[in-house]
Amino acid sequence: MHGYIIFYEDRNFQGRHYECMSDCADMSSYMSRCHSCRVESGCFMVYDRPNYMGNQYFMRRGEYGDYMSMMGWNDCIRSCRMIPMHRGSYRMRIYERENFGGQMHECMDDCDSFMDRYHMSDCMSCHVMDGHWLMYEHPHYRGRMMYMRPGEYRSFREMGYGGTRFMSMRRIMDSWY
Prior knowledge:
Elements: E1 4-10, E2 14-20, E3 36-41, E4 43-49, E5 53-59, E6 62-64, H1 67-71, E7 79-83, E8 91-97, E9 101-107, H2 114-118, E10 125-130, E11 133-138, E12 142-148, E13 151-153, H3 157-161, E14 168-171
Antiparallel strand pairs: 1-2, 1-3, 3-6, 4-5, 4-7, 8-9, 8-10, 10-13, 11-12, 11-14
């Protein structure tokens, strides 16, 4: 399945639009602003800065006529990344400290509270072995989020999340597409 998202300059799908079916590191060459979007298929992470930086928000199939008030953003979408569909197992190791230090827990399913399940008050690095995940700054999948694809993430602080504590996570499942 391929992703397909349409970005609009103004709220409620008005103004010029840009159709996207893959990652886009900088939307400024296509449109000066973006205040609404429609996800026709697939799942995407959208970012409020170019090059997949800044605040992130997960979008699945649906209409987002005024996403800025929904997300609480002051700025508009500047880049987007398509999330490929994953079929198979999910596996991630979360660590209490940077560089894979401190307590380690291997996760294969959603966790709505690191503190409740693992008695872990902080998560500062992780290693995603299988699947695509969303991490959230608060328990019960609330607050700022970060998209995690397979790879090693040695320091959330160095990734620009210095003051953020991630406290819950969930798998991006096939049923979301």
